[in-house]
Every structure is written in C-alpha cells, then in structure tokens.
C-alpha cells in the first residue's frame, strides 16, 4: 500500500487494517468474510497476496469473488480489486473507491489549556472552536445560557465531561444533567463516561428500567455519586424526576447525605428541539420550562446547548426559549466536514434501485451504516441482507427496537461484532464510533440537516469515508415525495388550530396569576368542536403541536410541569402572554400564528427543494458545500473536492480549515480578585528570551493569579503543562499565532509574552492596543523588557500608565496578599 506524509502509514489506515483482520477471525458467513476481504485488499492498495490474508478462501468463496469486486491474479496467488462501478448509475462511486490515505480532517488544531491537560487525556484541542467552547463554559456567568455549534466529531461531549470534573474539584457532589434525544445516544455516552477518571459513576436513565433501578440511579444522583445524569426530555419533565432535580439544584442539601449539587443543564443535539419539537415529541420544546423551574430554586444554574448544525430557524427557537433572564453567548465553528466521498444514485423505483444498493453494500468499506426513512423499509432491508444476501454480522436498530436489544446493538457495534447496521434516524445522533467507513442512505433524507448529521456518523477518526445516497424519484410513490411529506407535515390549518384552541380553553381550569400572566391547566385530551371523539395519542399530539406553535409565536408559555394535583399526566400548565387568547375570536392572534406557521413551512420547503435539486444534479455544484450552507446560512464553506461536481470540475479539497469561535467571550461581569492592578502592566522578565527561566516565570505568574497566557507557538504546549503543574484553575493558553484580528481573549487575569522577533512583536503589540487600548477591567501583564521599542518609543513610555514591575515583585505582591499587609 502507499503511505502518508513522511513515509508513515496513516493511523486510520493501520487501525482499519487491524479491525478487518480481527473481524475476519470471527466472521462465519461467506458474504461477511468476502466484504471484509475486499475492504482489506483496498486498504493495501488494491492488491493482496492470498498467503498474506488472515483466512483461507474456500472454493465457494472463490466463486463469489466477482460479487464483491474481487478477482484472482498473479496465476491465482493474489487478489485484486476489479473496477466496474459505473454500470449501476452511481455517480462518483468509481472515484470514491480509490483509497486516499491522506487525512481528511484538516482542521487547524488549537493549543491546549492547563485545564484540558489536568482533567483529560487530550494533548491539544481538535479545533479553535472546541477551545473557545471550553473557555466559554469555564467562564460562564451563573444563570446564563451558552449555545455551541461544532462539526460532528469535533468533541462537543468534552464540554459536559469537563464541566462535571471541573466543578467536582471544589464541590465533590457537583453534577450535570444532560438531556439526550435518543436512548442509543444516552447509552453510548454512558459507555464512554464509565471509562473516564472521575466520571465512572455517570448513568443513563431510560424508560425501560425497573422502578427499583430507576430509583437507585436517582438516589445516587441526589447523593452526588452520579457526576453526569443522562436522560430524555420526557423523563426530565416527569414530576417524579423533576422534584428530585429541584433537590439537587438547591444550593444547600435538603436532607443530610444528599450532597448532589446540580451546576449545569446540557441539551445534546439541540437542533432537534426545533425540528422534532414542532410535531414529533413536542416535549422537546417544553424543556425550557425545566430550566425555568430549576432556576426558581437556584438562579445561578447554567444552561448549555450543543449541536453539530443549527439552522436559522433552530437558532431563533433556541435563543427565544433558552435565553430567559440571563446572559447569552453563541460559539459557532462555521466549518463543514470534508472526510466523505459523496456518491449519488437516482432511480425510478425501489426495484430499479435494489441491485445498485446491493452492489454498494457489498463493496462499501467496513464498518457501514445503512439508513432508511421508515421502520418498515429498515425491517425489509435487514431481512433481505440476512436471508437473500447471506450476511450475518448485521444488526437492526429502529424506533421499534427494544431497550435491551438497543444496548446489545450499541455494545456490539462498539466491540466490532457487526460490520453493518441497518437503521432509521433512531441510530443517528452522537453514536461515537470513530472508525465507521461508510454511510449509505437507501432513501432521500427530508432535508440537508438530516443528511449531513447522518453521514457524520462516519470518519470521526479523520480518515476517508464513503457517503452514498440512493433515492427514488418519480411522480408517484418515491423517496422524493416521502421526503417532501415529512418536511412539510405537522402544520395545522387555521380553522383546525382555532377550533382546537377553543376546545382546550373551554375545558381548561383557570389557576392563578403569575408575573402578570393568567395561568391555565389545559387538558391535552380536549376535543375540538366537530371532531369525532377520538381519544389517545392522536388527539394529544395535535393539541401539543398547537400549544408548541403558540409558544413559538410568544402567545403562551408552557410552564415547568404538570402540578402534583392535576387529574392525570395529560395536563399542561400554561401562562397566557396575550390576553386576546381568552376572548372568543381575534383575527390578529390567528394572523400571527398562521404567519409563523407559513414561514416555517416555507423555510422547510425551500431548504428541501434546494437539497433535492443538488441531489438530482450532482455534477452541477458541490453537494457538501450546498448542504452545509443551507444549514449554516452565515457560513461560507469551500468546495469539498470529494463529490461528483468537484471531480468533474477538477476542484481540489481544501488543505487546511480554520474554525471560528474564539471571537466570542462573555462580557466581564465583575473584575476578578487579583493582587495586580487592573489595566496593562509591563513586567520585566529575568529571562527575556523565555528559555531556562521560563518555568520559574510561569509559576510566579500563576501564583500571582494569572489564568491566561498568550505565548509564542513553540511555548504553548509547555506553558499549558507548567500552568497545570502550578495549580492554575483554568490556565488558558493562547498561541500568539492564533491571536488574530477577530480573536478575543477571555476577561481573566492575563499575561502576554512579547516574542523576540521584531515583526511578530509589533503585531502582538498592535493586537494588544486594538483589544485593550490603555484600559482593561482585568489586569493584563505584558511580559517584555521596558526598553524595547514600539512605534519608535520605549514600551515603558507607551503601553501602560503603571510603572514597570520586575519579576521578583510578583512574589512580593503575593506575600503581601497572604499576610494582609
């Protein structure tokens, strides 16, 4: 095989080879064995001696070689890849099957902070956005909200891991609540957290647990023994759990031994609050009421929303619902992913697609996920792969999969017991298996966001991956029509919405007044006028959809939970924000509701139409670029270099990607306590070249309260380690090369090391002047010799109104602080 930069085989290739060889040791079926052999031969450059294979191919398997794109060569002593990809109407498959060992995750890494080195095994941040998100998290004011958008695989989970560990350093019972959209994701996070030092007790709370097991986890959380509690929106909203969350959120223990202290509420995959909460699982949009109720107990509770993609519609819903009374900050990477080779196939019918789908599944690099839209389609494909195609190392994961089976599939997937998972979106978000090599859609996702999220299950290790979409397109029953139906359904007509509200209002119980708003208890089983008496989920779901729409229109607020004295669980407490709702009819009210509905429907339709057009004409424009810019409208992504349009036009992939995020910071709430005066202070170091004396200087700065350093790139790693060893609580380190025009420093006590090179020093001084001027609410130490020149004048005459300090003065100041003199 060929090798990567510097003559080394890339780690992702080495790991993929090892994975294939180990899987071949346990694979029994011929289809599984030959698909793995094909992946292995491909990883070795398209040719492999039979003697080098870890298994012996029997006669029946040699007969099947052609099905898997393999042929004997060298007088029957070797295998080679046969290229015949174009006969199935799959645009780009021939190019995608060519092995490319080069790293595809070309994000510019960021220097570590002391807190990262102290609390994790990571030696650096994956991107500047991840670094920015951790910085924002650790400086987040009490009672505020933080929203983070970073690419799949960029390490969003690090935030709740760091939050729990960081808070538990000072408060042993500190804990975080993480609200997760799917059971699969919750179980996957539980598995990951259980292997991390200090977070071993983290647990996922799922609906299928026994009452005793559920209560045991809740009691452990109340005692502070569960650092991270993962649960669903429905669980978080249940009166039983919510009462205990209030106990844990309280600043002081309500009973002896209950040492749990809730510090953060996280919502993972937060974009689905807008997309799912509109008509599917509307409890997602009731989640802000949980935060509001917990903040009644503890106003300092912090909220953090995490997502890989955020449309403008999702941003607005999240901002409106979660900002509440506190400060708000958004950290966005605005960076697409470029690991995937994009393949597209369009067919008139499922029957016409079937041989192409079989071909792609047989040839796709392992492991592979095959997505369908419906449970029925997933069931059919799974059965066909087992009965007709001979696969055994295949699993099924849909919304109908039982909880025990989900655990088994997730565990088996992590342990390489399966090479194929056939799934619906239930096996979507956050399943963190780094070495997935292929994602195949045997459908058309109902929008660019779903497609982008699901291909993001592959190539989390930064290596090459296949993303194939095979969809049907005709005027009758097709994937295109199904996608349009899903994307635009769930909007009530004006007449039905009004009659449903009348039914809810007429059966409601008027409660009290709160903050100037009338509070009502509405019965979700209420019938609309003229409706056939049809109890159950159908009526409740539509009533919930209406109430959520009214909440998005800011006409009502869905309050924290069902009161304990409510007749049953199907009652919501709502606050009437617009008193016109209590009147019989008001056209203005319904005009505003319908305007919102129409705008949402139009946005969904436009995004899907643009996505369909890109998929129908894959050689016209870059699909990755189009999809990402449809999702993140404020971003500008370069073309990917790995799709049919880019290959046809000779467009090369980007060499390096910068991510945003470090331009964001919280407004300074109050000046931190420090022995140093606010503003810029010039510090003369004993060792102006930052060589042998650098460790002593860093230790002295940390003792003086410095929590952030800007250092030359070569010193960044060492500075973070020295700050960690010296006991810095956060120990932020900024590589001076990344302190660019838009990048801003956190407002904590800071030391800026002036490099010896004059050009770079001038840039740093210009940047210092640009960001701080001559004043700063926090102390900023410029570490440089006073006699150095800037703009023709000495530093001690230009940068500060304070007299310069010698390095020895730091210890004197600390001694004075300790003794109180």
UniProtKB/TrEMBL annotation:
It comes from Novacetimonas maltaceti. InterPro entries: DEAD/DEAH_box_helicase_dom (IPR011545), Helicase_ATP-bd (IPR014001), Helicase_C-like (IPR001650), P-loop_NTPase (IPR027417). SUPFAM superfamilies: P-loop containing nucleoside triphosphate hydrolases (SSF52540). This is ATP-dependent DNA helicase RecQ. Gene3D superfamilies: P-loop containing nucleotide triphosphate hydrolases. It comes from the Bacteria. Keywords: ATP-binding, Helicase, Hydrolase, Nucleotide-binding. Residues 137-328 form the Helicase ATP-binding domain. One of its GO terms (cellular component) is chromosome. GO terms for biological process: double-strand break repair via homologous recombination. GO terms for molecular function: 3'-5' DNA helicase activity; ATP binding; four-way junction helicase activity; nucleic acid binding. The lineage of its organism: Bacteria, Pseudomonadati, Pseudomonadota, Alphaproteobacteria, Acetobacterales.
